[in-house]
Amino acid sequence: MEPATITIIIMLFAVVMFILEKIPLSLTAMLVCTSLAVTGVITPAAAFAGFVNPAVILFAAMFVIGGAFFETGMARKVGLLVTRFAKTERQMIVAIMLATGLVGSVLSNTATAAIFIPIVIGIADQSGFSRSRLLLAMAFAANLSGNLTLIASPGNLIAHGALGAAGVPQFGFFDFGLIGLPILIAGVIYFALLVPKLLPERTISQPSTFETQKNVENVPRWKQVVTICVLIATIILMTFESVVKIPIHVIATAGAIVIVLSRVTTEEKALKSIDLRVIFLFSGVLPLATALERTGAGLMITNSVIGLLGENATPFALLVAVFLIAVVLTNFISNTATAALLIPLAITIANSMGADPRAAAMATVIGASMAFATPICTPPNTMVYTLGGYRFADYTRVGLPLIIIGSIISLILLPIFFPFFP
How far apart are CA 134 and CA 138, in angstroms? Predict the structure, then answer.
């Protein structure tokens, strides 16, 4: 069997397994890279090269910094600072979404949701506002915040790493915010104005999981100061990467080292804060891009996609196609898995047309972030499913209009900020 055919079969296997989730996503990813090596499609060194990718180092380092941000109670302080001034339910929705967006711009959506769930439940119980509306607003804001900065979402870093592997200019720290910030603002307005009418209030008793919260009142103040200083310094240095001439994964690693050496957190806690599932998922699927390129399988798929669009397909039609495929797929598998699968294909398609791979990668990432229509497509959606007493249809009722709003904004702004032919 031809290597290109084997590569396509392995890719289709990954898609099906990501959708069914019969086995963990990280295990599926490891099956992908192992299969590529066993079948001889690429060398074992190339199949496992993802584990030494700079993006993986960046993942691990930011997990350590984010873990300290949570452990010292700084994340809770940031959340409460923003939410304490709201007087009505609509104001509270706006405050929670803005606070979530702020924290989510530097932490993963999973970590952000974990931070705000107990805060939102406490606010709802004390204020009498609808817990179901506040929790869903928080979960969706956590997803939307992933498009604000380079480090806010694994999909962003996957795109960043794939562009680097392709030898083309990578994204800047705030490039995603050019599209993501307008969508977040639109999402806040949408939730404040329409969601109270779209989402019935669901009644649920206080879950025991959140009756006992970790006491962070006794955390020494110096640990909180060091944590926030390290986080701010890391973000500033990442923002001016081109000036300081230090790669962002090195900057993040230095920040993580300071966190541990200063004893803000222990080595054991730092290691536990690293989400190995994300590491294995990213590292396992990334070599698929290498296989698609080296075997010509990517070109075969590219020609098929272009053929479906017609010989005279415009760059905008291609952008729409890439974007919509990502939007549909991300609501049935995780947004990270969607980005990992589609970004290599999008870059290959762009290169074959002589277009800017950055435009294709950005369209894919933004499309993959439109994960609102089901409770299974992203961790925050799943995490609040039982806590808010939701039904599956609640996500579809609230999520589909937001997908449409986000898609319209994206397809207007993408050609402006990331044209296919600059």
Answer: 6
Q: Kindly give the confidence (pLDDT) of every residue in the chain, 422 residues in length, as a single tens digit, with 9 standing for 90 and above.
A: 889 899 889 988 887 887 676 888 789 889 999 999 999 999 999 999 888 888 788 778 877 887 887 788 776 776 666 667 777 888 889 989 998 998 888 877 777 787 777 678 767 766 778 888 889 999 999 999 989 998 888 888 888 888 888 788 888 888 999 999 999 999 999 999 988 888 877 766 544 344 444 566 688 889 999 998 998 888 788 767 778 888 888 988 999 999 999 999 999 989 888 878 778 877 887 788 778 778 888 767 766 766 777 666 677 887 888 898 889 888 876 777 788 878 888 888 788 778 888 998 999 999 999 989 888 677 788 778 777 888 878 888 999 999 999 999 999 999 999 987 77
Cβ 326 vs Cβ 362: under 8 Å: no
b or e along 238-256 (b: 16 or more beta carbons within 10 Å of the residue's beta carbon)? Answer: bbebeeeeeebbbbbbbbb
Name the CA dihedral angle for 138, 140, 144, 145, rounded to a multiple of 10 degrees. 20
What distance in Å separates the CA atoms of residue 173 and residue 179, rounded to the nearest whole number?
Answer: 13
